[in-house]
Amino acid sequence: MAFRKKGHLMQLENPDILIILECENLDNLKKLNLDAANSLWYGKNKNKGIGIFSFGSYQLSMMDIHNKDIEIVIPIIVTNNDFRFFLFAVWAQRTKDYDYRHIGQIWKAISHYKEILSNEKVIIIGDFNSNIMWDKNHRLASHSMTVEALSNLLIYSSYHNHYGVSQGGESHPTFFLYRHKNKPYHIDYCFTSNYFNKRLKSVLVGNYDDWRKYSDHLPLIVDFDIL
């Protein structure tokens, strides 16, 4: 929320691609000089949507095949001269579709976008609002089922690959409920195809003490050696 007051903090990280959840629409960000090459925004509430920003020579275009029934998964083509990949920005929310809320929406998106996800250059990143600890609450489409469906497409979590841990074994929380340090959860992810897996340099999660005054989430920073 209130990204116009926090955007300068993201510039300090010198990102190529920036995904912001609960982001104000672009009209509200006009006074924030992000110096972005491209900006995309999607949402029904002008104060809380998905913002995607690119920098340098990276260009963004939202794909026409975006399924509005799975609106919280946004398919985007990213280009940098001759280099191109598919980016899916995610903000999993509680929906009216009770059986497929939160992670269930991503599980549905995997089936819908399966052909695109079969490409060699794919990144799926954002707030999944999910962890294996809540599998029992999602019997039709759980976190484990979603991770398995992605692995069948050779798409894996960058964090878990980098730190050599299994799902549920995370030692870096990405979210603190009500910003309380004693209520940590790992619910933000970056899943990538093997092209990016082979070029993964680092995965960092922001420090709680540095970020708690700005958000209940910590930034997830994933770096690849691709260009």
What would you note in describing this structure?
The protein is an alpha+beta fold and 227 residues long. It has a single domain, classed as Endonuclease/exonuclease/phosphatase (Deoxyribonuclease I, Chain A, 4-Layer Sandwich). 19% of the residues lie in helices and 32% in strands. The protein contains seven helices and 13 strands. A six-stranded mixed sheet has the order 4-5-6-7-11-8. A three-stranded antiparallel sheet has the order 1-3-2, with no helix packed on it. A two-stranded antiparallel ribbon has the order 9-10. Strand 9 and strand 10 form a beta hairpin. The longest helix is centred in the middle third of the chain and has 10 residues. The chain is globular and about 45 Å long. The mean pLDDT is 91.
List keywords for this structure.
globular, 6-stranded mixed sheet, alpha+beta, Deoxyribonuclease I, Chain A, 13 strands, 3-stranded antiparallel sheet, 227 residues
